[in-house]
Design goal:
With 787 residues, the chain is α+β, with helices and mostly antiparallel strands. Among the domains are: 1-28; 31-239, Penicillin binding protein transpeptidase fold; 591-671, no CATH class; 695-786, Immunoglobulins (Immunoglobulin-like, Sandwich). Helices cover 33% and strands 19% of the residues. It is built from 22 helices and 28 strands. Helix 4 (116-124) crosses helix 6 (151-161), helix 8 (188-196) crosses helix 9 and helix 13 crosses helix 15.
Length: 787
């Protein structure tokens, strides 16, 4: 009796263990994940429009499924493949029984009674032979599938992996390949075609067997109408729709962005912030403009458009061609490629100098031949203006004033500002960049520079900013950070004044008369050209949008016509022509204050100058009094300067006089017709002690080292020394190391053959004023050693 009881217990335990094993096996029988197929990387616009795609790693066009199957396609799929989809647990007993009886009666099975759940299982098992054993496995796995996934998820899995002929897999890829639209935008007839094709994609193909395809489509449409899904009129119209032709090429509107994001492994379905119409327009404009530039040897260009309202990227044209690259660097995403910045960093130095109280927009900055520790900057036109207001120096993109401003501000301080604005390409130290930082000595990317200009526009439009506010980051994908790490160093006042200066930049020839038309928009913009004419930049903002453009050769090859104004600016303004006009940032009254400055030079007034109001950032403390006004004593004729040593005080007249240093005056009076030079000292008068002399030596520079090269014929060249005098008609006498060299009049230049070593040059005018300059001439051996 005991043995019998123990046997029953053992049997129950074995049964329980077996049942548990079966349950465990059932639970684990379905692979996780069910599909391991790679998806095609696709770039979608902000509204879901397909902009670009690339085949998956296995060579198939297979798009990541949408969260929901399009309603029309869902209805057609269920009607065609599995009418009782929502009423069975993965296996349809009625369909299965009908298939068995039908097969027994005919002697062979024509219907497999496969539900959509079973078809998903079959697709996941990669076309294994259709045997009875395999059918039983599909039945079991379909039941398990229904326990793991909802009906909508199963539909989505089927829609993503159904075959559509050739290398097209899934309804998303098929919709674009056959109809150039996503499934959600397809008609009833088009949706029925996509519902039918997976049933036998090799036999029923849009390019072949068109009568069979149309007959099947129309039968499905009639079935939908019989079920009350379609109205009679909808059915008639749907049956008249043509069938699709051969598979269409997919859009190629953002290939460089696609490759960049795919390399970052940002996912397969890349929903971006791009505006589809603007993206296509920008790509076409860049392509067309580049074709014209290519005739001049300028083969590449790129453009980026940012919506300043939320810093979303609205258009991203990474290079000149979207397909058929064929060399010349057309495959490179030039928006992310570091290139020499040229002059495009100047607005940020100007804003920083305003914020720091180092100048006002009207402050004169010297524009004369200048040398800083072996670096001698030149303006692009190789001329000088003597002195220019800071805002004009920015609007004209003058190099010499910019270098002087950076020298006063500090390279390390400016570099820190640029890094805070998000420049990640500044990998050298301030001493290595030196003052060339402001003229293209560093590299930047179009992505980061456009973001910097967008920040400038955003800051200018904010009347008040919180102390904890940070610079904003561009948004391209969901989840992108909204801000950079650095807190704001520039305030609305400095940013707004900078935009005001940039709005005065002269436009390209076709835009020269923009003020004459009410429909044109105000744009603050800046160009840049790198050394050697290798990079051309143009960046600007209209308040609503910021646009950045680069043109050049991906190889780094320079071309004479490769300048910001000639190559990049026309493209910039054509892009702005496609954009909605923006509201110009309103004057940030809370971050500006009015101060009195001298009208002539923009410095703080003394008792001698006429004043005007000038707006400056509220937090700035500009404390530089004017160095240019002198109280001048004139004789009764008003033509001569006099002093108490040669004229009675009672016979003098006294005037305030705007006086620039001799070198600045020499160039300034060429451009400023209203400038009145200081009257000469009457011959019987002596210059007071300590008064600034009328002579300036332009070359050689103080304590400079010069090298006199040998020409192609082997003959040693000459050094050309230059000086200026406050009086245009003055004569000057030249002396080198005490030896008399000669006399010059009007144009004070002297070509000299000087031996290596240390020397002293002295220039003396006929009134006895003199100026000396010490310098060194390097021997060829010394120069070779220094290298």
């Amino acid at each position: 009796m005991g043995d019998r009881r123990q046997g029953r217990v053992r049997a129950r335990r074995l049964a329980a263990a077996g049942g548990a094993a079966l349950l465990l096996g059932f639970a684990l029988c379905l692979p996780q994940p069910l599909f391991r197929d790679p998806f095609s990387p696709v770039v979608l616009a902000r509204d879901g429009t397909l902009l670009d795609a690339r085949v998956a790693a296995d060579g198939q066009w297979r798009f990541e499924p949408s969260p929901e199957v399009a309603p029309k396609l869902k209805a057609a799929l269920i009607r065609f493949e599995d009418k009782r989809f929502y009423r069975h647990p993965g296996v349809d007993p009625l369909a299965l029984a009908r298939a068995v009886f039908d097969g027994a009666a005919r002697g062979r099975f024509r219907s497999g009674a496969s539900t959509l759940s079973m078809q998903v299982v079959r697709l996941s098992r990669k076309g294994r032979p259709r045997t009875v054993r395999e059918k039983l496995v599909e039945l079991l796995l379909a039941l398990r599938l229904e326990l793991r996934h909802s009906k909508e998820e199963i539909l989505s899995l089927y829609a993503a992996h159904a075959p559509y002929g050739g290398n097209v897999v899934g309804v998303e890829a098929a919709g674009w390949r056959y109809f150039r639209r996503p499934p959600r935008e397809l008609s009833w007839a088009e949706s029925c075609v996509l519902a039918i094709l997976p049933n036998n994609p090799a036999l029923i193909h849009p390019g072949r067997n068109r009568r069979a395809l149309k007959a099947k489509r129309d039968r499905l449409l009639a079935s939908l109408a019989a079920a009350g899904v379609l109205a009679p009129l909808e059915l008639r119209l749907a049956t008249l729709e043509p069938l699709p032709a051969e598979p269409l090429p997919l859009p190629r509107d953002a290939p460089h962005l696609l490759e960049t994001l795919a390399a970052r492994r940002a996912g397969a379905r890349l929903q971006t912030t791009l505006d589809p119409e603007l993206q296509r327009a920008a790509s076409r404009i860049v392509e067309r403009r580049s074709a014209a530039l290519a005739l001049r040897g300028i083969r590449n260009a790129a453009a980026l458009i940012v919506d300043n309202r939320d810093f979303s990227v609205a258009a991203y044209a990474g290079n000149s061609r979207r397909e058929d690259y064929g060399g010349s660097g057309y495959a490179v995403d030039l928006i992310r490629r570091p290139r020499s910045t040229g002059s495009v960093l100047k607005p940020f130095l100007y804003a920083a100098a305003l914020e720091a109280g180092e100048l006002t927009p009207a402050t004169l900055v010297a524009d004369v031949p200048t040398r800083f520790q072996g670096f001698s900057p030149e303006n692009y036109d190789r001329s000088y203006r003597g002195a220019v207001p800071a805002r004009e120096a920015l609007a004209r993109s003058l190099n010499v004033p910019a270098v002087r401003m950076l020298h006063a501000h500090g390279v390390a301080r400016f570099q820190a500002l640029l890094k805070g604005l998000g420049m990640t390409t500044l990998f050298r130290g301030p001493d290595e960049y030196g003052l060339t930082l402001i003229l293209g000595g560093a590299e930047g990317t179009l992505w980061e520079l456009t973001r910097m200009y967008a920040n400038l526009s955003w800051i200018a439009g904010a009347d008040v900013l919180a102390h904890h506010a940070r610079y904003r980051e561009l948004r391209l994908l969901p989840g992108d950070p909204e801000t950079l790490a650095a807190r704001l160093e520039l305030g609305p006042g400095a940013a707004w004044l900078t935009l005001q200066a940039l709005a005065e930049v002269s436009r390209p020839e076709e835009e020269a008369h923009w003020r004459n038309f009410s429909s044109t928009q105000r744009i603050a913009w800046k160009t840049g050209t790198s050394l050697g004419h290798r990079d051309a930049w143009a960046l600007g903002t209209n308040g609503r949008y910021t646009v950045g453009v680069w043109a050049g050769n991906a190889s780094g090859e320079g071309r004479p016509e490769l300048t910001g104004s000639a190559a990049a600016a026309p493209l910039l303004f054509e892009l702005f022509g496609r954009l909605e006009r923006g509201a110009w940032p309103e004057r940030p009254s809370a971050d500006l204050k009015q101060i009195d400055v001298c009208r002539e030079d923009g410095f703080l007034p003394s008792a001698e100058c006429r004043t005007e109001k000038q707006a400056v950032p509220y937090a700035s403390h500009f404390e530089r009094p004017s160095p240019h006004f002198r109280r001048v004593h004139l004789d009764a004729s008003g033509r001569w300067r006099v002093n108490a040593g040669c004229e009675a005080v009672s016979r003098m007249t006294h005037r305030a006089w705007f006086v620039l240093p001799p070198a600045e005056e020499h160039y300034f009076r060429r451009h400023a017709v209203r400038y009145r030079p200081l009257p000469p000292l009457r011959p019987d008068c002596r210059e007071p002690e300590g008064e600034r002399g009328p002579i300036a030596v332009l070359y050689p520079h103080p304590d400079g080292a010069i090298y006199i090269p040998v020409d192609l014929g082997g003959k040693k060249g000459r050094a050309i020394f230059e000086a200026v005098h406050r009086r245009p008609d003055a004569a000057m006498h030249w002396h080198l190391d005490g030896a008399y060299l000669g006399k010059t009049e009007t144009f004070h230049q002297l070509a000299l053959d000087i031996p290596p070593g240390s020397h002293q040059l002295t220039v003396v005018d006929e009134a006895g004023h003199s100026l000396s300059r010490r310098f060194r001439v390097l021997a060829r051996e010394t120069l070779a050693q220094s290298k």
